[in-house]
Amino acid sequence: MRTKGKLYAAVLGLATAGAFVLSTGGASGHGYTDLPISRQLLCADGTVRGCGEIQWEPQSVEGPKGFPAGGPADGQLCSGGETRFGQLDGARTPRGAEWPTTKVTGGQSYTFRWQFEARHATTDFRYYVTRQGWNQGHALTRADLNTTPFLTVPYGGKQPPATLSHSGTLPTGLSGHHVILGVWTIADTGNAFYACSDVTF
């Protein structure tokens, strides 16, 4: 009886320790945009199928910071350079369809929203958009983007709440399908988080 009690206590202790590791960020990965909806969230919520590992961890698109001078390589911007999330880089979805888009209007205010699984000290949030006439037939590159952000939100090293919204004016002179690249730069690591959102102006 006593041995069973000790075994039960040990198992309970291991389960508690495992839960603690998970709750304190044992998993890698920490945030994504849901306004406008990002490719990783479209994969996670089942709107886009065949995405591979990203469907279970949309918050994990983490890569080197310093974009556009540094950061992920061209052709790997939407995956943050994480090869296991390479499906996000495709010009089309893994099943060959167009990426679903969010309708937006140039020159109007838009509220961007991030969801965080771990709230890191933050330098800023920056948003880039593709140029008019960009090449939609390949994975996103710096040449496809206006590499001056149309919106920068400084955050001064603070930790964001679990959900963070901020507004900015969308650029004018764009029509048709474009990609907005959101970059969340972490203050106390060498990394940033990347989110590609397909939109129609």
From TrEMBL:
Residues 30-199 form the Chitin-binding type-4 domain. Residues 59-80 are annotated as: Disordered. Keywords: Monooxygenase, Oxidoreductase, Signal. Residues 1-21 form the signal peptide. It comes from the Bacteria. GO terms for molecular function: monooxygenase activity. SUPFAM superfamilies: E set domains (SSF81296). PANTHER family: CHITIN-BINDING TYPE-4 DOMAIN-CONTAINING PROTEIN, GLCNAC-BINDING PROTEIN A. This is Lytic polysaccharide monooxygenase. It comes from Streptomyces achromogenes.
